[in-house]
Design goal:
About 35% of the residues lie in helices and about 25% in strands.
């Protein structure tokens, strides 16, 4: 992609309006150093030096979008607890709209705590309550999303398998979005197999794709363009989900784009160093969808998502990237 074409796409981003629907989380990072082994058990003692908090899950998808456009909203469920208040405050600081988010006093906000020492994750502690919204809550969310569809360009489903995205909620939002001709994409969960029918695009990772297709995950390392099993799975999911596009993320092997009536297209990874893969999938679905909104071709959108993911895995923590960093990644790639 030429720098001029990238500028054409990015220039449109600030006018686009996107809604993220899915599992909301609060990501906590406890930073420290290890100076000794505990006398109580053979584990390191982490001496804490600082703590940071970020919006996680679907909220991190919204955060990635917010770097490119001021028109971002998120819908999910939080508790009437400290984690929920902190998450809403963080989103407010970044001017991400949360008006449609449910606050349920009987629900505990999902919090993921990562202990980091010397740039290495020592352990992760999850505090989560997996629960579906009630029928009344589903009706309220579906009606609320349908009412705001005329004013948005795309809906992104971010499914971490924590229960908020029920099949009925997804079905109703997708039906309303189809009637208004909106772009609809999804980042699926391997343990929560929703039928993602008639979407614009679905973005599973390799393991999620094989699981959704009901196939065993091969352990043989094969170049993606020569991986017959991967290609078969991609084509099977295009048929199963009747989606227009399928983008399978492959970690260090990049991404593979499948689209109806065309050959699979492999995009090699652009990652130059990997510090932390936390949230890389969030970045990929965010930038892929945003690029499609900006009239990028599917291949161009996949290239943008690939570069964006490469930038964030080079950072510690739940990270985002700026338009300047995206441009720099393309420029560096073009210099080679």
């Amino acid at each position: 992609m030429t720098p001029e074409r990238l500028e054409e796409i990015v220039a449109q981003a600030s006018t686009k309006r996107l809604l993220v629907v899915g599992d909301l989380m609060l990501d906590e990072f406890v930073w420290g150093k290890v100076g000794r082994i505990s006398p109580e058990a053979p584990v390191p003692v982490v001496e804490v030096t600082s703590e940071t908090f970020y919006p996680g899950g679907a909220a991190n998808v919204a955060r990635n979008l917010r770097e490119f456009t001021p028109h971002v909203a998120v819908v999910g469920m939080i508790g009437a607890d400290r984690g929920g208040r902190q998450l809403r405050e963080l989103l407010g600081q970044e001017q991400i709209e949360t008006e449609g988010t449910l606050e349920d006093a009987t629900f505990s906000t999902i919090v993921k705590t990562r202990i980091i020492a010397r740039h290495q994750q020592v352990v992760r502690v999850d505090r989560e309550q997996i629960r579906n919204p009630s029928d009344e809550q589903v009706n309220g969310v579906a009606d609320g999303v349908a009412a705001r569809l005329p004013g948005i360009d795309a809906v992104i489903f971010e499914d971490y398998g924590k229960g908020f995205l029920t099949p009925e909620l997804v079905r109703r939002i997708c039906a309303a979005a189809r009637q208004t001709g909106k772009i609809v994409t999804a980042d699926p969960s391997p343990g929560h197999l929703i039928e993602w029918n008639t979407l614009t695009a679905v973005k599973p990772n390799r393991a999620e794709a094989f699981l959704a297709a009901g196939r065993r995950i091969p352990t043989i390392d094969i170049p993606p363009a020569e991986d017959a099993a991967l290609i078969e799975v991609g084509e099977a999911l295009l048929r199963k989900w009747t989606t227009d596009l399928l983008l399978i993320t492959l970690g260090e092997q990049g991404m593979m784009l499948f689209q109806r009536g065309d050959q699979p297209h492999h995009i090699p990874t652009k990652a130059r160093q990997v510090f932390d893969v936390s949230g890389a999938g969030d970045t990929a679905i965010a930038l892929f969808t945003l690029a499609l909104c900006c009239e990028a071709s599917p291949t161009e959108a996949a290239e943008i998502a690939n570069h964006a993911s490469a930038v964030v895995v080079g950072k510690l923590g739940t990270a985002t990237l700026t338009p300047l960093e995206l441009r720099a990644s393309f420029e560096e790639d073009g210099d080679k």
